[in-house]
Amino acid sequence: LPLFHLLSLAFVLIELSILQHISQLRSIIFIDNLSLKKQANKTMFPGLGGATLPTGAPAAEQEPGPAEDGTKLVDLSAMLDKTLSYARNENTAYPWGNLFIGDSRLGTQSDADEQLILHLTFQEFVKVKSIKFTEWNRGANPDMNPVTVHIHVNRNNLGFEDIEDVDPAQSITLTSGDLQEISDAIDLYYVKFQRVKSLTLFIEDNAGGDVTAIGGLKIMGRTIATTNMNDFKSKQG
User: Fold this and answer.
1) Which of 7, 146, 194, 213 could crosslink 136 through cysteines, CB 3.0-4.6 Å?
2) How far apart (Å, rounded) are the C-alpha atoms in residues 92 and 111?
3) Is the CB of residue 220 less than 8 Å from the CB of residue 130?
4) Which of 223, 115, 116, 135 is CA-nearest to residue 179?
5) Count H helices, E strands: the chain?
6) Residues 189/134, Cβ–Cβ less than 8 Å
7) Helix (H, G, I), strand (E, B) or coil at 140
8) Using one digit for the tens of pLDDT, what is the confidence trace for 139-181?
9) Closest Cα to residue 66, out of 236, 231, 237, 192?
10) What is the residue-wise DSSP string for 46-98?
């Protein structure tokens, strides 16, 4: 080929090479700029990729999550409403409140005969897992030990005139071994004690004594999550 044509071809190749490099350089610059913008957004608004309120804007107040039922087994005697709890055929020298002070010499006794009704109301709904009766005065009077106990759930105003006509949630028969301080509590029927506001304990008979004596009582269970309506109204207002 003539020299003129060779030179023209060389210039064309050089020009194409320059254009190719310019195109590649523009692509690199564009990508770098995009990365810098993303990085700047993350720095200014961390955690939300830049799509957040500007600095200084008040964050929305988070509502507390739903309350959960208690998971720990506790002694529910601290949750009793003493103003709504009572005993029938109680010896006033040994009131029902003595059952929860931890001294078996100062428990409770029946009065006219061996039968006794204990009505225990809780301040809120609870789940009852088990119940533990303790013998009077460390077993000094075994003939006064309670034997047959009928447990009613959420029954109010039961008296001796009608309590035997109402089916209990559970009946238990206590032995002298059950009543020892070191003995385990007696488990109750799971499904029948999941939402308890009150328990009525009817001690029907004892081990042969003229009156019944109980040294202590422990009710084990869990709390139930409830809504505090006052808190709810304050948030709505």
Assistant:
1) 213
2) 8
3) yes
4) 135
5) 2, 10
6) no
7) coil
8) 999 999 999 999 999 999 999 999 999 999 999 999 999 999 9
9) 231
10) TTTTT-SPPTTPPPPPPPPPPP----S-EEGGGGB-TTS-EEESB-TTS-GGG
Residue found by looking up tokens 């008979």 in the block: 205
What are residue 60's phi and psi, to 5 degrees? Answer: -65, 135
Spatial separation of the C-alpha atoms in residues 80 and 173, rounded to whole Å = 25
Tokens coding 225 = 């999550």
Please give the model's pTM, rounded to 2 decimal places.
0.69
How far is the CA of 170 from the CAs of 131, 167, 204, in angstroms? 12, 8, 13
Q: 136 with 213: CB under 8 angstroms? A: yes
Residues in the chain: 237
pLDDT of res. 211: 98
Q: Per DSSP, what are the bridge partners of residue 118? A: 87, 201
β-strands 116-134, 186-187: how paired? antiparallel
| Integer-rounded Cα radius of gyration of the chain | 39
**φ and ψ of 234, to 5 deg:** -65, -35
